[in-house]
Amino acid sequence: MAEAHQAVGFQFTVRPDGVDLKLSQEVIKNIYLSGLTAWKKRAIQFKNGVLAGVYPASPSSWLIVVIFMMSSLYTPVDPSLGMIDAMKESLLHQGCGFLLDYMSAQSRAVLSAILFATGLWLFLIYLLRYSLKALLSYHGWIFESHGKMSTSTKVWLSLVKMFSGRRPLLYSFQASLPRLPVPSVDDTIQGYLESVRPLLDKQQYNQMEILAQDFKDSKAARLQRFLILKSWWATNYVSDWWEEYIYLRGRSPIMVNSNFYIMDLLYMTPTHRQAARAGNVVHAMLQYRRKLERGEHAPLRALGTVPMCSTQMERMFNTTRIPGIETDIVQHLTDRKHLVVYHKGRFFQVWLYTGGRHLLPSELETQFQRILNDPSEPQPGELKLAALTAGSRVPWARARIRHFSHGVNKVSLDAIESAAFFLALDDEPQGYDTGTFNSLDSYAKSLLHGKCYDRWFDKSFTLISYPNGKMGINAEHSWADAPIVGHMWEYVLATDCFHLGYTEEGHCKGDVNKGLPHPTRLQWQIPKECQDAIESSYLSAKKIAEDVDFHGRLFTEFGKGLIKKCRTSPDAFIQLALQLAQFRDQGVFCLTYESSMTRMFRDGRTETVRSCTNEAVAFVRAMEDCGATVLLALFRRAADKHQNMYRLAMTGSGIDRHLFCLYIVSKYLDIDSPFLKKVLSEPWKLSTSQTPQQQLNLVDINKFPKYVSGGGGFGPVADDGYGVSYIIVGENLITFHISCKFSCPDTDSSRFGENIHKAMLDIQGLFRPENDRNGAEIQAKAVPMENGNGKKHI
């Protein structure tokens, strides 16, 4: 440990005249400070737990209620309506013997007043919570156009603010969030049939209608009853099954197929010293973790008022996905004090605390520089060890049981899996460079899969540091969605650039502590059989990585600012551009996935928006017909449809999670449903996502336009389809991250990027004044609500 940075903290020698005991004062001092810090941390966590537990009331409000009720003892008015007197009599006739012996009538009256006041206080807390929960169950506000708030919504917002209390902590609203409602079977089936209508010919659609009707008439009611029962019992009827069956039970590699990445600042590199940048970023992450553990982050709130669920943030640090033969598990630990670093095939353990405090950025820089300067070679089998996490899950689970469940290998693996997170110090520079062709493509592929053995893909996230000072993140997906990691990353970048800073030479600020213990090499004894398993996993992962065709594109012709002037949601605008690009690229329409968040509900994660609608298809076909004269009207109709579907998904009225859960219930009950099998087997050939930006608003990007992130992306979901992540950055920039597979002859990420670029420009051209009867409306400020928050990919 960092606290025990001498080889021996105490020594003793047995002599004929007794035992000579020698203690290291410095070690004892560090142990004392570490213990003191731990107790302070527990006290703060306890205090914040109490504050969140009684929210929206406060502990001081209990004292106010008690004083009020006790003062009523000396007034002719009894606000308790005789209950205090009844409690006093109960204490007299039914109390314990010692109470009768030592309590006077006045003491019994005071005790009765305190007990009644406490009960009244708890009742008021629950009344406030359930009142707030009832208010938060109203979602009519989300269907109103921005800037056109109705009187009822204004009243509703005022009531929400009134019941929300002051200075809420991160988890203050959890008990007040409504549960995700279960949609009706009729609405879900109707929505599904409407979504597939533009994708099927008449005969196929009629067959699907027959399947749907048969399901509704025969099996749906029974499955729905069980689902409603679960929704009453569980905090969320979807999330636990979603995590288990979509993520943890998957046996294919999670690298590329599940994990996602997030990029560093596009245009700025605060320092070009790798160790210094890593030192600042790791220190900023430790600050974020400390606030997270204490629950001191402010909860995210839509409109600055409507709270979002914070459950996913709990497992951000100290978390690892553990492989199993049939299913994985997510292991989350508390109070982890070390970090594991990978560099040139070696694993190092770095302690993050000394003397009961976090290591300072300058101290972390020293530790990381020591690793970079270490000339030692990897041990046999160590170089590609992490490839086990990149390959299929079953071979990794078997290798873990056979070779890592005892001895030195278990100790080293435990160090990795119990670490706060994983840091990879790469030896090849990456990052966006305007002078280098396809630099964004190379940067994204490095973050997504690297060399297939230099990321620990099972950790909640791997922080990646490059020798030119650039950074990035590869995140495991089962524990949380992209906006959660993005929230942390925004905090870290802002803290790194605007609070911690660097010296003129590019080093971390602060004195250098050369007395810190050196990072410790993890030791391995990897037999030939295990090395063969590592190589096999590496080769399968390498095949997946080499098949990823990636293209990153910065769209700078216009951005959110101009789109808003067209009185259109930027998200709907981009989704329709993607539909147009898809049709031009493939000549057909396809099932399209767009992810929406459901975090306005307790334990909410995501819902699907099926973007390829009848209205979108009509608009795209009209765009390809040079003789069309109603393009703008068709566009607005398609955009409005998309916006409405997105809002329905956000408010619990989506169709895909409901169908997914009905299917899970059918498997539990051993009920065969051809309709559900058909629905769940349909491929998403176009999977899209918007990564949210400016969740925290810590940096004014209008004042500092170069301090913007490139966002993030993910691998292709279908073998013959595209994955597209887009990020609306400020008013004048949109970034696209496009992925597909080289093995598919019909897809090309660069070509699709060109099609998106042209589609964006073609749609924007519709809003020229000569194409709009009312050209003045282009300059109007009113715009439907933008749907940027909380979206991620499946």
Comma- or semicolon-separated keywords:
794 residues, alpha+beta, eight-stranded mixed β-sheet, six-stranded mixed β-sheet, 13% strand, disordered N terminus
Explain what the structure shows.
This protein has 794 residues and is α+β, with helices and mostly antiparallel strands. The chain is 44% helix and 13% strand. It has 24 helices and 22 strands. Strands 15-9-8-12-13-14-3-20 form an eight-stranded mixed sheet, sandwiched between helices. The longest helix has 32 residues, at 105-136. The protein is globular, with a radius of gyration of 30 Å. Mean pLDDT is 87; it is low at 1-10 and 770-794.
The radius of gyration computed from the alpha-carbon positions, rounded to a whole number of angstroms, is 30 Å
DSSP, total strands: 22
Distance between the termini: 39 Å
Q: Which regions contain 5 or more consecutive residues with pLDDT less than 50? A: 1-10, 770-794
Mean pLDDT: 87
Which percent range fits the helix content? 40-55%
Give the helix/strand class. Answer: alpha+beta
Largest sheet: 8 strands, mixed
